[in-house]
Amino acid sequence: MNSTDKPRLSRTHALDLLKQMIRIRRFEDKCAELYTQEKIRGFLHLYDGEEAVAVGVIPVLEKYDRIVATYREHGHALVRGVSMRAALAEMYGKQEGCSHGRGGSMHLFDKATNFYGGNAIVGGGLPLAVGLALADHMRQKPVVTACFFGEGAVAEGEFHESLNLAALWSLPVLFVCENNLYAMGTALAISESETNIQLKAASYRIASEAVDGMDVVAVEAAARRAMHAVRETGKPYFLECRTYRLRAHSMFDAQLYRDKAEVEAWRHKEPIVRFQGWLETNHMAHPDDMVRIEAEVAAEIADAVAFAEAGTWEPIEQLTRFTYAEKAA
Amino acid sequence: MNSTDKPRLSRTHALDLLKQMIRIRRFEDKCAELYTQEKIRGFLHLYDGEEAVAVGVIPVLEKYDRIVATYREHGHALVRGVSMRAALAEMYGKQEGCSHGRGGSMHLFDKATNFYGGNAIVGGGLPLAVGLALADHMRQKPVVTACFFGEGAVAEGEFHESLNLAALWSLPVLFVCENNLYAMGTALAISESETNIQLKAASYRIASEAVDGMDVVAVEAAARRAMHAVRETGKPYFLECRTYRLRAHSMFDAQLYRDKAEVEAWRHKEPIVRFQGWLETNHMAHPDDMVRIEAEVAAEIADAVAFAEAGTWEPIEQLTRFTYAEKAA
Amino acid sequence: MATEAIQSQAVETTYRDAVREAIRDAMRRDERVFLMGEDVGRYGGCYAVSKGLQAEFGPERIRDTPLSESGFTGAGIGAAMAGMRPIVELMTVNFSLLALDQILNTAATVRHMSGNQFGVPLVIRLATGAGRQLAAQHSHSLEGWYAHIPGIKVLAPATLEDARGMLWTALEDPDPVLIFENVMLYNATGKLASNAGPVEIDKAAVRRPGRDISLITYGGSLGKTLEAATVLATQNIDAEVIDLRSLRPLDDATIIASVKKTRRAIIVDEGWRTGSLAAEISARLIEHVFWDLDAPIGRVCSAEVPIPYSRHLENAATPQVVNIVAAAKAAVVRT
Amino acid sequence: MATEAIQSQAVETTYRDAVREAIRDAMRRDERVFLMGEDVGRYGGCYAVSKGLQAEFGPERIRDTPLSESGFTGAGIGAAMAGMRPIVELMTVNFSLLALDQILNTAATVRHMSGNQFGVPLVIRLATGAGRQLAAQHSHSLEGWYAHIPGIKVLAPATLEDARGMLWTALEDPDPVLIFENVMLYNATGKLASNAGPVEIDKAAVRRPGRDISLITYGGSLGKTLEAATVLATQNIDAEVIDLRSLRPLDDATIIASVKKTRRAIIVDEGWRTGSLAAEISARLIEHVFWDLDAPIGRVCSAEVPIPYSRHLENAATPQVVNIVAAAKAAVVRT
Ligand SMILES: Cc1ncc(C[n+]2csc(CCOP(=O)(O)OP(=O)(O)O)c2C)c(N)n1
Ligand SMILES: Cc1ncc(C[n+]2csc(CCOP(=O)(O)OP(=O)(O)O)c2C)c(N)n1
Ligand SMILES: [Mg+2]
Ligand SMILES: [Mg+2]
After folding, report:
1. What pTM does this model have?
2. Of B37, C246, C303, D79, which one is least surrounded by beta carbons within 10 A?
3. pLDDT band of D146, cuts 50, 70, 90
4. Do C273 and C222 contact (CB within 8 A), yes or no?
5. CB-defined contacts B:C, below 8 A
6. Is B183's C-beta closer than 6 angstroms to any atom of ligand 2?
7. Residue D106 phi, psi dihedral angles, 5° rounding
């Protein structure tokens, strides 16, 4: 273990990690509420229980690094610095949204933060990440592309093709598998003959690590090791984060495939309560810290809602815009 | 090693293995000649150098087992018992061909021998094999499906999806990878980050073995072990046969990607000469055996050519037949 | 069938339940039939179509698959070639693109390539269509596009009778049949004969007879088109509404007979306009009834844009009643 | 462009060499350009198009890929989004089905889904077409089918000038462009201006002016269609031959102007008839010039069958000069 492996767990940093997780959680609770009010439509996939993954990994990246995410990407967008205003306005379908209202919850994009979006095709983001990294590799840029995907994507042919290409061409991709044990209602054991996902990296000669995805500090430490390896070697790295989705897959899911007891058991390992408790017992988080964090987050959310509400609908005359680039006049 | 592992190498059996290899070689030499005469058109992929694989594996299968092959399948068809007449007539495009002249060299099919054909999409046959085995599994039939494919197919997503499905559902598929080191002009190292193909089976929890594909006895022994395992467990098995393509990929290949020396080196390991020499030194093949074999093969080929030449063209009025089943009148 | 149904004792049901009943019925009739796809079992189907079926038929016959569209579609093809009668559910047409090689290069070609030795009696079910604000990757209407492929058949059940009746007939077909279920229809309710069963899948249906113009459509657009016909009636335009039912093959006879009578036609199709099935029908009409036409054939299709998320733009991108009415009026007044 | 070319000093060349020259030229003009695909490097390209290029530009920029169509097509999309100008060679359209999800769900949608923040300046080259007796899985003509997809552009170079000139223009396009090269054209020889360079890709070209009927075609069928026009001339039918060049978007203006003049049209398209690009053009003509037509619009397309191996059946399945002549005569005599 060299220095880059040790989490610099200063109090400020710790509180920041905690705040980011709380920020995602409260934001998505609000989104769920807004969904029932039909302010948000389409599919809405919440990250509830998995916050430690995005919060542990993304701050380790540099501004110039790139991120590819899935349709369950609100948390990733927020941690990366996509404004909550633009993200929520997008879910409202307003043209002030980060994707101009064209994408919705599953397609948050933000060029300013190199956020290459929400992809709603499972596994579809992996080849894209390989290509982003290929471009950087060919231009010898020290840029890393972090690619997030669920364990369900591991069964897709594109997973296989992408890992092989990244390793074969030695491309700087950090593959982050968010293993929450279910793909919609399909448990890992019903999807994979080998349920130890991390092992799969070996057949592509890709270095890998599996980490407790409910422990933000552990995730951050693993992410540091991973990013260090990618930057040192220019080669891909595979990070499996073992986590759990506490809510339904989407707002349409009756959760017939798992029993409440299982969900309850996981609730106890829930990343926010767990980390907060640990910080409190170690006197790194005080009650007033919590009050401040909750207040700041609540204010940011209120502001985002106001912004989204005030947002405008794109004129119907512009319907076919963005199908092709507008000709430079 | 139990009895099923030991090749029963009686003289008759040995000579039969040798004859089958010679039969394929001479037949394909004739095909190449007929191609230059434009009797055979389209793509023609020869098996020259790889004969020990089909000859070692296919006789181990039962009549009721199923076979899925690639566009390089002349040898597999002949060993399986597809008549040389029907195979050659097919390459001529005559309606007496085993696929009624619709398929050509890349699409030899034969229901009578459960030969599910030549597939010209690399990797395309693997899901098919999984499905054939699924049908047998669901009906508890003791049938095994042998699926042949080249090492180039390993990079395809369908390889990954198929191996996982076969293992996950525990289906009786014998995956036979014909690793001839090249996919057209692409050497294995340019195609795979992990060039030890056999290792890949492990990440699906599939039992596997790699064998010298130039040694027909070794291939047969390995095939016996493999088939025994599949029948015992009902699970898939992965057999990598390490071999080499001595001729061009197809008749259009200038072979810019490998030097003659390499090909020459492999010619010395060539399965027919090697096995024949071994049989001769061990007094299992005598000069008159060879004379007989060559004579029988030559006669069969001459007969097949006559048959194909005498074959007829399907009337153009029947063009759209076989697009859909004909309605039973 | 539909009419019979209405005569016999009818029960209130939904399109979703009708599809489920069709699957259950097929599973009971023939043990070679099984359903396989993502989340068809424990989850109950992403649109709850197969809910409860795994409990009745078990995990082998209501088979949950990994996310391997090409793999399990190919497996369905192989199982069909080996004598089973698989129903592969590709969840939605959007994901079927991952399986297109297996569908076009194998399912559609095996009978031909093998000189008729092997066939692929496979049924593939796919949800299709826009309207749920699922944006650019989840709102495709590609059924008309699939109808380009020789070797497969393409069905689009628009009614409860067809949702209930097409599956079994498709399963009895010796060749691959794709059944597209429009996502906006699953909650559609209506009366279905308690004894509703298999229906033929070769003919288009005249859902509303009329004299002045033929409105030709299918699947998710049938309802909108019938609505449009009602509006047109109030303006003394008597529209005939044709439900294609089968997109491949097309029932030319019914289409031609209708247009020969009305001398005008509009085709309503949720696919993107360019290269739409509507274009094919228009071209065929020109080839067959050119001299009988009193007006150009019109098309009401989706705009040439990936479907946007926001509701107002999604609606603007897809055929609506007003567009159909406008197109029909234009065709009628034009002469 | 073509005409200019003929004026300047011309050298004998082949379509294959023209494509190679276009790639070499692009690689020299812009270091962001690279070619990636199966066997483009060491093998020299399955149709020898890229022969020699790896020696000149090295294995990084003339990049051999594994058999991973979806993977490397997606990689091309990503590289394009990150500022490169990749040319992805999908060897043949037959294998592109494995990459269709990346093409339709990503390349064609990213600009839209991202509200115009990201674009995909990617060029995909594909060999297309029948005629080499490669049978049902290797003889597809799907360029017209691809033209259904909003968000991409589709080109079909039929001449040496276009084979040489379209690539660079496509690379400068901010959106994904698919270039379909007909396999029967690679050996085509002719004179090409020594200074031949980029050509515009927006307009259809009138390859032969005529008064009596418009023969509309593209790519591999242009030669056959011009031949047919010559035959027709001997029978006093003066055919105008239009080369679409761009299949998406279609140059309606040129097509409409021609048919308004000739009042008759036949579309020649190697795609399967149902749902062919020919159907789209027919439908558009009806929408725009219905009242100017003196005869129904005819289509000469491929038969609705997977392409058979045997030569006589393959020929019978695909458009031939005699079919074009017959269709044209039928349209002219019909009135
Ligand atoms: C190619 C494809 N197939 C199916 C779907 C439907 N679908 C959406 S999410 C999902 C489950 C994905 O599970 P996983 O990859 O584990 O991610 P998670 O939702 O658990 O975060 C499925 C099947 C899809 N979007 N894309
Ligand atoms: C999906 C697909 N991509 C590309 C091709 C073109 N192609 C035909 S054979 C071949 C090489 C396959 O190599 P391998 O799998 O090792 O089999 P081998 O020819 O060596 O027996 C390629 C690239 C194809 N037929 N299918
Ligand atoms: Mg998951
Ligand atoms: Mg090989």
Report:
1. 0.97
2. B37
3. very high
4. no
5. 139
6. yes
7. -115, -65
